[in-house]
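Response to reviewer comment R2.3. The reviewers asked that we include at least one raw input/output pair. We reproduce the pair for Serine hydrolase here without editing.
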Amino acid sequence: MPAPPVRYAPLACLLLVAAGCGRGGADQVGEAAPVETPAALVDWAHTHDGASLVVWDVAGDSAVVDVRGDVRRPVAGLTGLLLAAELARRAGRSLDTAAVLPASAVERRRLPGVDPPRPDARASSLAGLARRALAGDRAAADVLLSTLGREATGALPHRLGLDELDAPLPLGGLVLAWAPADRPGPREAQLASFLALGRPAQRDSAFARSRAYVKSPSYRAAERARLERGGLGLSPTDRRAAARATLPQGTARAYARLLARAVREDLVDADVSAAFLDLVPRPARDSLGERGGLRLGVAEGVVDGVVGAAAVAERGRGGRIAVLLADDGVQDASALLLDLARADSLGE
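Raw output as returned:
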């Protein structure tokens, strides 16, 4: 079954760990760069040290644009591609991707004032959760990660031959671990202590906090009350620094290669590749998606100014992939990446 189209809010408004578009003011973390054309996006990446941009030609198995493509950076959103790859691998084997989870499975993971409200909360299949995760729904990604399991997802980068990528971790638990409600002292000091732990201990803490938030009613109530009263208690600058220091890392080239393998039907096998690509959301607003057999897909996310976005323009076993990793937002990044990816595929 083809993936349903997904409607995207502007990327600048998907600040999952900022307070959301509606509140503005000091809670916002950075402003999206006003980049208006694909060529301007390439120019911006060249002049912005905090950005990596890769456009990958699938048939040639090489980059046609490569701006710091091998630099490891913090990644927002695109770790969901690893989850989707594992879900596709296990589909019809150990997991029923059509199995429906109640809306409460996702909603109880939302953090007040951190995650955008979801007035359309609804039951969702595992496949639906993967599409929501790739469209920037942090809570959906955490549910999918929990379902697939820490051990299995932790082994994903190595099993896929993509050791440049860190394994996914629960972002809700990570955010709570930055400055937890059950620890005494100033929030800035709590964050400094967390940053000093090192990545293995930070991952352990993120998984532990995520598990406690779901399993312990008293802990969840305490954290929700704290967040509803005054948020995380960290400044936008501190949150931005925390995201850069603790999010999973990866390279734009490695994510481009992951998507290219699926287009070439080489992600495990043809069936797994097709199932994976079916999970990548299609942009509803793009009228060229089916033109000449071209299929488009987008994945994106933002966490406190850290941006991850990828676009696929696929025809048969060819096409192009565009991937952006950056420490600042770019207005309509997904649309610009789609234009970069599809230009050659459409003969433009």
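The chain has one domain: 5-168+248-345. The longest strand covers residues 306-315. Further pairs are available on request from the corresponding author.
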